[in-house]
Amino acid sequence: MPDRIESYKVICSGGLNSNENHLDLSDNAPGSATRLVNYEPSLFGGYRRIEGFDEYDTDYGEVTVAGSSTGQGKVLGLAIFKDDVTSSTKIIAARQDASGSNYSFYHYTAFIGWRKYTLDYSVTRPMTLSGRTVTKLRHVTFNFGTGNKICFVDGVNPAIVFDGANWEELKSTNSGGFTAGGTNTGGGDQCINAPSLVSVFKNHLFLAGDTAFGAAIAHSAPTSTADPDGFYDFNVSASAGQLAAGFDVVQIKTFRDDLFVFGTNAIKKISVNAANAFALDQVTANVGCVARDSVLEIGGDLMFLSPDGFRPVAGTSRIGDVELETVSKPIQATLVDIIANQDMDSLNGVVIRSKSQIRYFIGDDSNFAADSIGIIGGLTNSSGTIAWEFGELLGIRASCCTSGYIGTTEFILHGDYDGRVYRQENGTSFNGTDIVGIYATPYLDFGETEERKTMRKINTFIRAEGPLELLLSMTYDWGDADTQVPSTYSQTSTGAPTRYGGRNINYNATNVLYGGSSKPIMTSDIQGSGFSAQATFVTVGQTEPFSIQGMVFEFTTAGRR
After folding, report:
1. pLDDT digits over 193-228, tens only?
2. How much is the pTM?
3. How far apart are CA 126 and CA 96, in angstroms?
4. String of DSSP letters for 295-348
5. Averaged pLDDT score across all residues of the chain
6. Domains recognised in the chain with CATH numbers
7. Over the range 532-561, which residues count as b (16 or more CB within 10 Å of their CB) and which as e?
8. How many helices (H) and strands (E) are present in the chain, helices listed first?
């Protein structure tokens, strides 16, 4: 009588889990992952290998003016700005000049490429002042009723405001207010001269993060119908002022009806009190933010990286209270390692709104792109419950990043250390380099730890978006070196049927399959035995994305030990 074949179903859900042991995962989260590299939570369930990125664009990718030196200077900042003067949306980049002593602002124009702001828009800024060097630009866009504005800060130079026609520096030595033509009269006696942080709150411009005055938070005069340019004025006589946080300010970010002020070990918030004045109140003295560019708004919350993981700041029904909870417990071990061994000032974060997703990139100019790591997180609706799932990023070296909409299309952009800008969620490679994808299940005991299983077959349920080859490897007995490991197996799919008008389709390409198979199962006969088994799926190439949604293991048992 032949052995009875048993089966075990695994549905991919839960994301990366580096915090729990394999026994717990086998029992309680068999669909989670112990490795999940360059995968995102799929909108259709399971894990989807991420899309690629390419130069923005290939003809004019480098942020430089024709005839100038190339291959030098990193991109320090990126912004998407709706310019009321020209009624167009611009991508603005700040790039270190070839000499390394200055940086300049550029804007991208379709079919022309990157162009430096010149003539009346000329602004070139030093990289180093007073022993401080620019490493990154941050910005905020706003409109207080007089048109769109954008304010850039770099931690070395005064803040600078652009309205589409004029650049206006904000200095403590200036008289305050606005003068057309960029005569640099903005600022006043309450202004901070070298802010690295900027936000807007209640029609005021807020500046902070000057290393010489780390606890100071300056705010402009109010902007109103009577004073439409109040945000340029930082004079105390115009009702501008400063607040003292009581700690070095890491980040300031507006959320709902408050402006949150993050330190490394504490959080406060600025609100408007009964006297119609700004008040600074304690949120918590027990936790803070370890990476200033980890603070992102997503899903109606502010997410930030604390010493013990990602936390949202969520308002409660109790007036004036804030509830803090860790949402990244499954990857706490990974995050603790990153915080301990990586430079948190090199972390850059971006939101992909269409996917309710955040991405954090960690790497500096000393790293190769292939060694640059990151974290990807997305909100999912598994089993009717909103939850976070996380994975790892590998191979994206971002010096800065931003996201936003041009028309109805969302753009996710990052700059690199060689002066180029890339658009993510575009293409099937990392600008011509293969994308590595790794998904490893926990060690699964299939409900019985003391019974040996001989594996027969694995049915992998996929959602292919193009031709696909998955390399499958099996390991047994929780990785015991004495247990024989079989050869790697190959699972292939012709992918989903090609649609005319599909995105990124080259209809002359040899790998385009008209009417390709949409069969959702890839089957492999497998060998090996053990008390537990782990499946690892690897892809290396430039293929369309795909999703692994689950699998069914088939095996026979050989009695208890």
Report:
1. 999 999 999 999 999 999 999 999 999 999 988 888
2. 0.91
3. 9
4. -EEETTEEEEEETTEEEEEEE-SSTT-EEE--S-GGGHHHHHHHHHHS-GGG-E
5. 87
6. 6-51+437-560 (2.60.120)
7. bbbbbbbbeeebbbbbbbbbebbbebeeee
8. 2, 43
